[in-house]
Amino acid sequence: MSKLAQLEIPDSIYNWAVDFFDNHAHCTKFAGTISAVAVIHASVIQGSAIGPASFIVTASDLHPIHERNRIFKFADDTYLIVPGVNTDTCQEEIQHLQAWAADNNLKLNRDKTKEIVITVSRMRAPPPPRPDVERASSLCESSALP
Fold first, then answer.
1. DSSP letter at 91?
2. Any idea what DSSP says for residue 135?
3. Average pLDDT, whole number, for the chain?
4. How many helices (H) and strands (E) does the chain have?
5. Beta strands 33-34 and 29-30: pairing type?
6. What pLDDT score was predicted for residue 86?
7. Cα separations (Å) of 134 from 6, 65, 137, 144?
8. What per-residue confidence (pLDDT) applies to 145?
9. Which of 66, 89, 70 is nearest to 78 (CA)?
10. 48 with 71: CB under 8 angstroms?
11. Quick one: which of 112, 118, 111 has its CA closest to 82?
12. What is the pTM for the complete model shown?
């Protein structure tokens, strides 16, 4: 809420958001069975109408550590772009993303974390695969953070 408070929005909208996030809970109904109620403590409630906007506000201070690297945010996904000359910074950038996510009560979804290597020349061999990140062969199978 501290990030939302920094925006120039009417008090009524800020107060509505506080009320929305305060003690927010969720349960799921499947095949006639309703799950237990779980309280949500995250700053971004995925699947909610306010989720993408909340992520934009929350992620406003997320930037790469290294100058040539880029972070692109779309809806509630995050894409880290690291040029070939910076491949040695990948691990540090991923650790930075994880730390940022933890600081913002989010979690880096390792199942959705993928690496794709794009080369300009077919003559250049891609770097060896990372042991902790699955390599994708196209952007269609790739997805990102929280």
1. H
2. E
3. 81
4. 4, 8
5. antiparallel
6. 84
7. 37, 22, 10, 12
8. 46
9. 70
10. no
11. 118
12. 0.68
